[in-house]
Amino acid sequence: MSIDARVLDSFARQSLMATFEARLEHAADGLCRISAPILPLARQQHGYGHAGLTFALGDSAAGYAALSAMDKGMEVLTVEMKINLIAPLTGDRVLAEGRVVRAGRRLVIVTAEVSVDGRQAALLQGTMIPVPA
Amino acid sequence: MSIDARVLDSFARQSLMATFEARLEHAADGLCRISAPILPLARQQHGYGHAGLTFALGDSAAGYAALSAMDKGMEVLTVEMKINLIAPLTGDRVLAEGRVVRAGRRLVIVTAEVSVDGRQAALLQGTMIPVPA
Amino acid sequence: MSIDARVLDSFARQSLMATFEARLEHAADGLCRISAPILPLARQQHGYGHAGLTFALGDSAAGYAALSAMDKGMEVLTVEMKINLIAPLTGDRVLAEGRVVRAGRRLVIVTAEVSVDGRQAALLQGTMIPVPA
Amino acid sequence: MSIDARVLDSFARQSLMATFEARLEHAADGLCRISAPILPLARQQHGYGHAGLTFALGDSAAGYAALSAMDKGMEVLTVEMKINLIAPLTGDRVLAEGRVVRAGRRLVIVTAEVSVDGRQAALLQGTMIPVPA
Question: ipTM value of the model?
Answer without folding.
Answer: 0.97
